[in-house]
């Protein structure tokens, strides 16, 4: 994926291209921390951060009228049965930011594995926990200094540790070759899998015997996969497994293996928060669109 790829907007299965980004204008992306700053009795500052959300500000000075009509239709559409997604070609990891670091952002170990809550994962067997592992693990990766914890999954036999199971936990496939990767260590054996929403559309990687050292495993869904969306997961071997895992990534790659890990957020659920249109010469429009992350 590159900056030459278009931003895509729409519900899963019906995402369409936004107009091309003017080279000199670009896209403004704000990262807002949701929380507050407090000053203690001794004057020191402390900060509570509940979440970090992005907003994208698009602007087109001379968009075609047809492109304007499509965006006007999107803005005015009463159809809200499916959440809107924004595919950002500058963010390769399609998983949500919290899934990409296995719950390290939300720090909610009590919710892991509970399908009735809103955790990052769901398990078919076994138990999950939240382990502090120290900064810089796995070593020699892009995770160094960014996380200090991981998910810990213990399962006695065959089971699956899924990414989010709600609609916002599914990622767009778009007919593209998709690679899922994760760092794992522990005992037993596991394999990575990509799950399309079409029954039977499962693409598994090779089974890996775990050790005390971090290993990166992957699974690849081909470009010809029948589904329009997917989720990802780890599968334990028949003898069970005791797994620590961190650094999940799902990316669209035309060829090759997983690239270096990067923060998630490439296919965010969004709302259209502002839209403006201006007339230019015949058949051309000036457009401004602001998209906010849910």
Note the quaternary state here: single chain
* Cα radius of gyration in angstroms: 21 Å
List low-pLDDT spans: none
> Helical percent range?
under 10%
Query: Which sheet architecture does the biggest sheet show?
Result: 10 strands, antiparallel
Q: Cα distance, first to last residue? A: 24 Å
Decide which structural class fits the backbone.
mainly beta
DSSP helical segment count? 2
Average pLDDT figure: 88
Coarse shape: globular
Order of helices and strands: EEEEHEHEEEEEEEEEEEE
User: How many β strands by DSSP?
Assistant: 17
User: Could you tell me the strand content as a percent range?
Assistant: over 45%
Condensed summary:
This protein is mainly beta. Helix content is 5%, strand content 48%. It has helices at residues 65-76, 97-100; strands spanning 8-10, 16-17, 28-39, 45-64, 84-87, 121-123, 127-132, 149-155, 160-163, 171-172, 178-196, 202-204, 208-209, 215-221, 229-252, 267-279, 284-293.
Report on this structure.
It is a single chain. By secondary structure, the chain is mainly β. It is 5% helix and 48% strand. The chain has helices spanning 65-76, 97-100, and strands at 8-10, 16-17, 28-39, 45-64, 84-87, 121-123, 127-132, 149-155, 160-163, 171-172, 178-196, 202-204, 208-209, 215-221, 229-252, 267-279, 284-293. The strands form 2 sheets. Strands 6, 7, 8, 9, 10, 11, 12, 13, 14 and 15 form a 10-stranded antiparallel beta sheet that branches. A 7-stranded antiparallel beta sheet has the order 2-1-5-16-17-4-3, with helices on one face. A hairpin with a 5-residue loop joins strand 3 and strand 4. The longest helix is centred in the first third of the chain and has 12 residues, at 65-76. The radius of gyration is 21 Å and the shape is globular. The model has no long low-confidence stretch (mean pLDDT 88).
């Amino acid at each position: 994926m590159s900056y030459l790829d278009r931003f895509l907007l729409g519900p899963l299965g019906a995402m369409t291209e936004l107009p091309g980004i003017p080279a000199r204008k670009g896209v403004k992306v704000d990262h807002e921390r949701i929380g507050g700053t407090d000053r203690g009795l001794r004057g020191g500052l402390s900060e509570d951060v509940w979440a970090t959300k992005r907003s994208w500000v698009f602007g087109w000075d001379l968009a075609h009228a047809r492109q304007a009509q499509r965006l006007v239709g999107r803005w005015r559409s009463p159809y809200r049965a499916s959440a809107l997604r924004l595919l950002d070609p500058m963010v390769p990891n399609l998983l949500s930011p919290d899934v990409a670091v296995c719950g390290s952002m939300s720090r909610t170990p009590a919710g892991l594995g509970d399908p009735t809550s809103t955790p990052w994962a769901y398990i078919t067997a076994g138990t999950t926990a939240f382990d502090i592992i120290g900064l810089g693990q796995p070593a020699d990766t892009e995770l160094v200094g960014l996380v200090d914890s991981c998910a810990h999954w213990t399962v006695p036999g065959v089971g699956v540790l899924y990414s989010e199971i709600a609609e916002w936990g599914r990622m767009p496939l778009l007919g593209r070759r998709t690679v899922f990767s994760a760092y794992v260590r522990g005992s037993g054996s596991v394999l990575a899998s990509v799950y399309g929403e079409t029954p039977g559309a499962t693409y598994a990687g090779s089974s890996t015997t775990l050790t005390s050292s971090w290993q990166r495993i992957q699974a690849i869904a081909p470009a010809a996969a029948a589904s329009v969306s997917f989720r990802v997961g780890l599968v334990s071997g028949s003898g069970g497994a005791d797994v620590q895992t961190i650094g999940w990534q799902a990316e669209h790659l035309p060829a090759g293996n997983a690239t270096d890990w990067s923060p998630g957020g490439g296919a965010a659920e969004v709302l259209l928060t502002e839209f403006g249109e201006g007339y230019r010469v015949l058949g051309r429009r000036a457009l401004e669109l602001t998209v906010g992350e849910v």
